[in-house]
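User: I've been trying to design a sequence by hand for this structure and keep getting stuck. Would you show me what you'd pick, starting by listing the structure so we're on the same page?

Assistant: Good idea, let's start from the same input. This is the structure you sent:
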């Protein structure tokens, strides 16, 4: 039991990472549609590569989405809307006219402008004319209202022959829109009619006909929508049947538009029928096995090629968080049909992972994320093909994103890849340009623009998960930053030493693989602890008196060793990232301050020596970058003590120092091979020879 407990404690981080993978798998399975998948892959315009296929049951041939949508659009465009006829408006306006006209005629008859002898006859004659004039107008108003005055006429009714339904009481009758007035048309009509019938109408009361011509036909939104929905529902989804036993397609047949439609219909029927309750356990089991396989591949890959991810809880959580988020988004898109699946900027996954880890991990995670999402989306082959090409193209072109302009270049590249492959697939399947949907290019452009979100996302990931991006490294490498300015001012020799180490280490890591920017920044800060007592370090003494001459060896060793501790404290006080602090912590490993150790032995030959007093606290380097920095730091410092800068001396110095570090087992925990160490040696030799301008001595003639 104790052994089991010890084993669990020893591997608790790995167990925790395994649990993250396990629960991630459960979550992804729950996102899956829970429906069977058609086992035949096919594309329009290609050949049927499977065996001959016959129908094993009756199924309908569904119309294509474009055809079905076109038929629905035709119903909408030709639909005659419903309007209510309002009798009350007519009664109100006719009564208003009668009242106003009676009042005006009464006033006009009171005017005493008739000849005395014929006054009564003239009044009677004028009264008859006024009555006829009023009756004519009322008759025309009734005639106009009988046809109807419509409110806010929709532009679609300007089409010749367009009609609407007018509801009067419990009946609705279709009427040509040309037979109905607008308010302006009704006003023009009555004015022209009166002018034609009564050319001397100036002798009659002056009327403002706008007051009596109001809309009496109003749009009935509720009934129109209900009837339209009924008509749309009557549009058939199918265009024929395939019967049991009927041959669908032979091996090698060309998949034309009709056969493609039949195959799609068969696929739809199969996937719908496979979702019966009795089949669900098997479907979920199959989906679980698929997800288990994909996650197992990721886990094994990380275990062998990137184990530090599995050793960190936050790193494991992060590596799962991105794929799960995009799988969730794809699931929402396919389930609710709320937005185009290509709007999801899936390339964010490899771009982000390649920034914080490496290109191999980014590609593996991206491939498996695409496989997981491609399984649930329509046209999974096309989707996967496009996404894989875009993701790999993006990370191969910009392996590290350390400038804002890189994001624009990557976005442009992704848009180009999407567009070119989409165009190629359509031409392959359809054989023409007609089927290309221009809206797709707009979707690809939006996708590419969404990739620009990765820039602020990097800052978020750095703060939440403790990562370090190249953008932050570039900011830290600015020599005008306060910490670097402090080193330059307090310990100028240390600053120059750090810059030389940075140049050596950066070139070596660039050649053997790794993050050259990380090692450069680590080198610039690795000796920051020396600013506490710069005069005790030889590079800052400049021929002045050595303060160590006044100290015992063990005290001098304590001061030298203490620069590691103080460097870590200064770095933490100034919020330097942990990855940079690792360079401070490990650049001397567990080596000894040999100069003062030997001095103590010479001064006290009979004293039993506690070598821990002269030993750096460690730890030893754990990464390729920190290992290279240790080599570069020791070699650069030792090279300053050479009296003669010949190729032989430099070569011997490099070999001696690195072989000693290997003997002291300083690189045992770092992911660096002997072949890479030998390569680093040669790089250092070449760089130092160039630095000190050694020349080949030509033979004398």
């Amino acid at each position: 039991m104790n052994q089991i407990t010890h084993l669990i404690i020893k591997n608790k981080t790995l167990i925790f990472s395994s649990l993250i993978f396990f629960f991630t798998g459960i979550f992804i399975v729950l996102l899956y549609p829970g429906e069977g998948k058609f086992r035949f892959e096919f594309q329009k315009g290609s050949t049927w590569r499977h065996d001959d296929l016959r129908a094993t049951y009756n199924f309908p041939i569904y119309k294509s989405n474009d055809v079905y949508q076109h038929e629905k659009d035709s119903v909408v465009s030709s639909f005659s809307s419903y309007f209510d006829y309002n009798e009350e408006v007519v009664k109100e306006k006719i009564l208003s006219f009668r009242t106003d006209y009676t009042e005006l005629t009464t006033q006009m008859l009171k005017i005493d402008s008739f000849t005395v002898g014929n006054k009564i006859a003239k009044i009677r004659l004028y009264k008859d004319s006024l009555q006829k004039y009023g009756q004519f107008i009322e008759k025309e108003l009734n005639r106009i209202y009988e046809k109807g005055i419509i409110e806010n006429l929709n532009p679609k009714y300007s089409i010749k022959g367009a009609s609407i339904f007018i509801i009067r009481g419990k009946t609705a009758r279709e009427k040509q829109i040309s037979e109905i007035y607008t308010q302006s048309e009704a006003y023009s009509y009555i004015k022209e009619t009166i002018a034609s019938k009564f050319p001397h109408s100036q002798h009659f009361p002056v009327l403002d006909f706008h007051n009596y011509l109001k809309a009496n036909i109003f749009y009935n939104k509720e009934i129109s929508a209900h009837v339209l929905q009924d008509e749309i529902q009557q549009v058939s989804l199918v265009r024929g049947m395939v019967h049991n036993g009927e041959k669908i397609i032979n091996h090698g047949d060309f998949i034309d538009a009709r056969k493609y439609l039949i195959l799609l219909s068969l696929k739809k029927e199969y996937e719908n029928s496979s979702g019966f309750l009795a089949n669900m356990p098997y479907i979920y089991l199959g989906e679980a096995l698929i997800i288990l396989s994909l996650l197992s591949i990721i886990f094994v890959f990380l275990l062998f090629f990137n184990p530090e991810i599995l050793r960190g809880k936050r790193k494991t959580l992060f590596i799962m968080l991105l794929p799960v988020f995009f799988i969730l988004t794809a699931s929402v898109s396919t389930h609710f049909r709320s937005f185009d699946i290509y709007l999801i900027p899936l390339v964010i996954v490899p771009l982000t992972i390649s920034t914080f880890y490496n290109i191999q991990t980014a590609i593996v995670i991206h491939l498996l994320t695409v496989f997981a999402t491609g399984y649930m989306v329509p046209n999974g082959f096309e989707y996967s093909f496009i996404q894989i090409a875009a993701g790999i193209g993006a990370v191969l072109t910009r392996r590290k994103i350390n400038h804002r302009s890189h994001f624009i270049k990557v976005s442009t590249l992704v848009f180009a890849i999407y567009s070119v492959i989409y165009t190629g697939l359509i031409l392959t399947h359809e054989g023409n340009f007609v089927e290309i949907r221009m809206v797709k290019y707009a979707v690809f452009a939006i996708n590419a623009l969404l990739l620009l979100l990765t820039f602020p996302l990097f800052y978020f990931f750095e703060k939440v998960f403790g990562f370090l991006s190249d953008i932050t490294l570039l900011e830290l490498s600015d020599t005008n930053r306060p910490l670097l300015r402090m080193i330059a001012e307090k310990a100028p020799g240390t600053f120059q030493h750090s810059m030389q180490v940075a140049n050596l280490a950066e070139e070596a890591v660039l050649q053997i693989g790794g993050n050259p920017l990380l090692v450069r920044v680590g080198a610039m800060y690795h000796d920051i602890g020396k600013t506490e007592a710069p005069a005790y370090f030889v590079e800052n003494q400049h021929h002045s008196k050595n303060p160590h001459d006044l100290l015992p060896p063990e005290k001098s060793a304590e001061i030298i060793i203490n620069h590691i501790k103080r460097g870590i404290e200064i770095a933490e006080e100034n919020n330097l990232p942990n990855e940079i602090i690792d360079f401070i912590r490990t650049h001397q490993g567990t080596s000894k301050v040999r100069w003062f150790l030997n001095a103590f032995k010479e001064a006290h030959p009979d004293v039993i020596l506690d070598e821990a007093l002269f030993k750096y606290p460690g730890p030893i380097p754990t990464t390729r970058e920190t290992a290279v920095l240790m080599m570069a730091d020791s070699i650069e410092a030792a090279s300053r003590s050479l009296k003669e800068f010949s190729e032989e001396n430099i070569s011997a110095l490099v070999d001696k120092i690195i072989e000693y570090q290997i003997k002291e087992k300083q690189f045992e925990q770092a992911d660096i091979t002997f072949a890479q160490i030998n390569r680093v040696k040669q790089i250092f030799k070449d760089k130092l020879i160039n630095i000190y301008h050694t020349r080949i001595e030509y033979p004398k003639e």
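That's my pick for every position. To get oriented when you compare it with your attempt: The chain has three domains: 2-36+278-453, 82-219, 470-691. Residues 119-147 form the longest helix (29 residues).
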